[in-house]
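Observation: inputs received (chain + UFG).
Thought: call the complex predictor directly.
Action: predict_structure
Action Input:
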Amino acid sequence: MAILVCGGAGYIGSHMVAHLLEQGKEVVTLDNFCTGHREAIVGGKVYEGDLRDKAILNKTFTENNIEAVIDFAAYSLVGESMSDPLKYFNNNISGTISLLEAMKDHGVKYIVFSSTAATYGEPENIPIIEDDKTFPTNAYGESKLCVEKILKWCDSAYGIKYTALRYFNAAGAHESGNIGEAHNTETHLIPLILQVPLNKREKIMIYGDDYNTEDGTCIRDYIHVSDLASAHLLAVERLMRGEESRIYNLGNGKGFSVKEVVEVARKVTEEDIKAEISERRPGDPSVLIASSDKAIKELNWKPKFNSLETIIGSAWKWHSTHPNGYNK
Ligand code: UFG
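Observation:
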């Protein structure tokens, strides 16, 4: 019995594949490699193709005894989703619909879906709980929320049980230092900060210091990518025990400001990282912190890498040894 990881060549997907293999599971990866990296897949069987292509899905499900699916395959750049929403709705929604159709055809009953804190939009409470209102402020978050709704109807009609995991700020890299974050267009704070000591960028721009927070910069909840992976496997196992479909937040429940993240990165790298305040980035909520109590309780999930220093330390181990990502 195998677990199919769609988007297993991406940042979070590749850590998922590694975690499943470490836990002795049989893994099949399906990825179209448009943003993922072949070198990021540390083992298991690999198929190249797009979720919108029925033929590759049928081949993957026919040639393997797939018991459950974990779906990471999506575009995830918030800014791009605002300038080209149809690109996001087409890939992120149509891709998962096609995957669900194949699951239905092949009698596969369990799916863990990669969702996001962006489904909430501007939060009404801090920390955010799963029952808070969802009002996405970008098309990326909207595409993920649409899929969550589609999953609900597939559960009631076809008995496909799902878990949607809403991640806060995924960060860090595998303990081995061999896999990590490598986006062609990097927009995330921690890898951009680490480009400064790698001499790939002169300084980090801090997007706004006039937010209603203690030091004026935005606060986020950073969660280690391997802790995200462990939650996915726990979610698969929970569904296999016959439990009902659920939505869970995944974060550490602790917020750090942009200035605090820069400070911790200076300590970890022992470099004086230059930072400069610039304009706010449109659409950034001031504070996003998760309550992950539900996941901790119901999945029995225990994040291992819960200090920001450890998270940034693991990212530094990867970036300092792979300054060009997976490119030689
Ligand atoms: N930031 C900077 N300078 C930079 C980059 C980011 O100051 O060069 C700030 C941002 O303004 C934000 C914080 O650092 O306040 C974190 O920004 P990221 O881009 O790393 O992450 P986001 O919080 O914007 O995005 C994350 C996920 C998205 C998800 C979103 C939900 O990466 O996938 O949370 O709100 F959609």
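Thought: report the result.
Final Answer: Residues 76, 78, 116-118, 140-141, 169, 187-189, 192, 204-207, 218, 220, 258, 281, 284, 288 surround UFG (CB under 6 Å). The radius of gyration is 19 Å.
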